[in-house]
Amino acid sequence: MSREAVINAVVVAGLVLVPLWAVWADEPFTITLATRAVVLALAAVGLNLALGLGGLVSLGHAVFFGIGGYAMGVLASHAQSYTPLMEWPVLIEGTKSMPIIWLVSIVASALVALVIGSVSLRTSGVYFIMITLAFGQMFFFFTISWAAYGGEDGLSIYVRNGFPGLNTLVPIQFYGLCLVVLLVVLVFCSALARSPFGLALNAARQAPERVQAVGLDPFRLRLVAFVISGAITGLAGALFADLARFVSPTMFSWQLSGEIMVFIIIGGVARLFGPVVGAVLFVMLEHWLGGLSDYWHVFLGLLLLGIVLFAKGGLIGVLAGKARAHD
Amino acid sequence: MTEPVLETRAITKSFGALKASDAVSLDLRPGEIHAIIGPNGAGKSTLIGQISGALVPDSGAVFLDGEDVTALPPQVRARKGLARSFQISQLAMEDSVLQNALLGALGAGGSPWRFFRPALSDRPLRERAEAALARVGLTEQAARVTAELSHGQRRLLEVAVALTMAPKVFVMDEPMAGLGTEGSAALTRLLDQLRHEAPILLVEHDMDAVFALADRISVLVYGRVIATGTVEEIRANRAVQDAYLGGET
Ligand SMILES: Nc1ncnc2c1ncn2[C@@H]1O[C@H](COP(=O)(O)OP(=O)(O)OP(=O)(O)O)[C@@H](O)[C@H]1O
Ligand SMILES: [Mg+2]
Fold first, then answer.
1. Which of B103, B125, B145 to mutate to test the interface with A (most CBs of A within 10 A)?
2. Smallest CA–CA distance from A217 into chain B, residue
3. Which one of A130, B71, B88, B164 is most buried, counting C-beta atoms within 10 A?
4. pLDDT over 90 (residue B64)
5. How far apart are CA B185 and CA B180, in angstroms?
6. What is the structure's pLDDT at A232?
7. Closest ligand 1 atom, CA of B44?
8. pLDDT at A292
9. Nearest residue, CB atoms, B99 vs list A195, A214, A325
């Protein structure tokens, strides 16, 4: 087992054991924090696919997070008010079922990623960053004025949505569900990185002309990566909304896009568990330092600066050394 | 006469005031090696760029197997059987040597739209990649990270990637550069075999290799073809000697 695999296993063990300890010690807030970390990690795992493997510096991934959140908010709010979403041409009712909400979140964010990607991926560098940012702001201001769903105030969902066979109102059960989703997505991302698609995408980041010269289209590879990436972050948005039982336009904010990217940079770009380590650390710092000082972001900034200057591979890079080519 | 596999008709390309290609017409026939020689900055790479699709000519046309491909992007030309190597290596430096070869095999023989099984465990793909590495003598290096290869080994990997594609045409931009005498000799032998699999348009500065391999040579100076002919004809050509061979160091 490589050093990185050991670290990953330790992280998974921690994600399983700490919340179990919290149940035993009757520390429900720790479980809430852990759930927050796991869901934010999922959002960042989505971005890492585009950023790490594809080299796409998207500063608009909050769009997908927000779309997942609003998919949940809209469906659940109609279910709790017993009003259909629409009656014509087909009757669509709200739902409180997580599997359906997840599916809608994934499909909706994938479609939006397809549109945003089709436009933004024709550019690169700063232009790409700016276009993704602009789309994020569009959604942000749209939801602020979307009075039907709370506008600026957002939308509260009174009871957490349900999952067959579980009582999602029990914190540890909801946590377990989120963790399983995260692990399934990580297994998928790990497979994807080694798959023919992953190989081609990775090469398109390093040597796009070579990829073209062997008959593959970097644009299409990136577009598909962007869509998968957006879909994963969208799913995270739905879970995040269910954790907070609240959605608001801030889910679309560019600050959030930035935070998701910060998790990846802290943990290690293109490393499978980079976003997980980054998100966990972020949530811990936010909790402890945030309690000590209102200016905890300054410390976060210093940490980020240190990592960017001295440890390009993030924490995983520091602990596990350079990534190895898969052989 | 047999149909040319590759043909350029009066392609012209300017960068500002500089005419890097000036009405270049040449062709490549089945089974031959057609060498392009010319001084630095003559427009050889620019020509290769237009043939492969990385650059679009201002005017003129490129034909591949009788089909006008002038408007097609590089990846489509590659799918139609055009394999190129780059003067400045274009390789995935963080990936292993084998992974770079797999990429070539993937473009030509496999679909990239597979997301679950590892590329390395795709048998046909892997065999194709390993066979190409073996032909250029990189088998021992297969597991190494490409960035660790010597300059010469990278040149060979460029050729190996082209080989994995089993193309109709090879277009190579200075594959011998930096190989050293022994390496050049080995690659010369390989290209000599390769011409029977697909004809080669060969840009090369190494005159020993060019004279040993070429069926025909075209001389490019300031973007213009000043002569095309057999090795003997080019050697005897006065204009060529003045413009180029005389100036060889
Ligand atoms: N993208 C570009 N923009 C502007 N000028 C260019 C560009 N590409 C090439 N040139 C110019 O066009 C001319 C031909 O360049 P090219 O690279 O085709 O020459 P070459 O024959 O391949 O030279 P070498 O033997 O050094 O590889 C040179 O003067 C070069 O500076
Ligand atoms: Mg050149």
1. B103
2. B75
3. B164
4. yes
5. 9
6. 98
7. 21
8. 80
9. A325
Closest by Cα among B230, B84, B98, B99 to B162? B84
Of A207, A212, A327, the CB nearest to B96: A327
Global ipTM? 0.93
Torsion of CA B136, B137, B140, B145, to 10 degrees: -40
Average pLDDT over residues B195-220: 94
Considering the domain architecture, whether residues B47 and B61 belong to the same structural domain is answered as: yes
Same domain as B104, residue B68: no
Identify the CATH number of the domain in which residue B194 sits. Answer: 3.40.50.300
Mean pLDDT of B193-220: 94
Q: Which of B166, B195, B219 delimits the end of a domain?
A: B166
- The closest ligand to the CA of B18 turns out to be 1
Q: Which residue CA neighbors atom 12 of ligand 1 most closely?
A: B20
For A164-177, write each residue's pLDDT tens digit. Answer: 999 999 999 999 99
d(CA B18, CA B22): 10
Question: Could you say which of A194, A206, A214 has the minimum Cβ distance to residue B118?
Answer: A194
Query: Is the pLDDT score of B144 beyond 60?
Result: yes
Domain ranges across chain A: 3-320
- Looking at the fold, whether B238 and B127 belong to one and the same domain comes out as no
How far is B36 from B209, CA to CA, in rounded Å?
12
pLDDT digits (tens, 9 = 90+) for B84-102: 999 999 999 999 999 999 9
CA gap A51, A59 in Å, rounded: 10
CA B138, CA B244: separation in Å to the nearest integer? Answer: 34
How many domains does chain B contain in total?
2
pLDDT score of B246 = 57
Mutate to test the interface with B, among A187, A210, A326 (most CBs of B within 10 A): A210
Q: Quick one: B100 and B174 in the same domain?
A: no
Sheet architecture: strand order including B18-28: B18-28, B6-15, B59-64, B67-68
Structural class in CATH, domain A3-320: mainly alpha
**For residues A262 and A304, is the Cβ–Cβ distance under 8 A?**
yes
Q: What is the pLDDT of residue A111?
A: 98
Residues B98 and B139 placed together within one structural domain of the fold: yes
Q: Distance between CA B87 and CA B174 in Å, rounded? A: 6
* B87 Cβ closer than 6 Å to some ligand 1 atom: yes
Is the predicted pLDDT of residue A180 greater than 80, yes or no?
A: yes
Mean pLDDT, all residues of chain B: 93
Query: What band does B212 get if pLDDT is binned at 50, 70 and 90?
Result: very high
Determine whether the shortest distance from the Cβ of B4 to ligand 1 is under 6 A. Answer: no
CA distances A173 to A161, A184, B14, B212, Å, are 12, 17, 67, 75
Q: Which atom of ligand 1 is nearest to the CA of B49?
A: 18
Banded pLDDT at B238 (limits 50, 70, 90): confident
| Atom in ligand 1 nearest the alpha carbon of residue B220 | 21
Distance B212 CA to ligand 1 centre (A): 26
pLDDT at B249: 41
Average pLDDT over every residue of B240-249:
64
What is the predicted pLDDT for the residue at B103?
Answer: 96
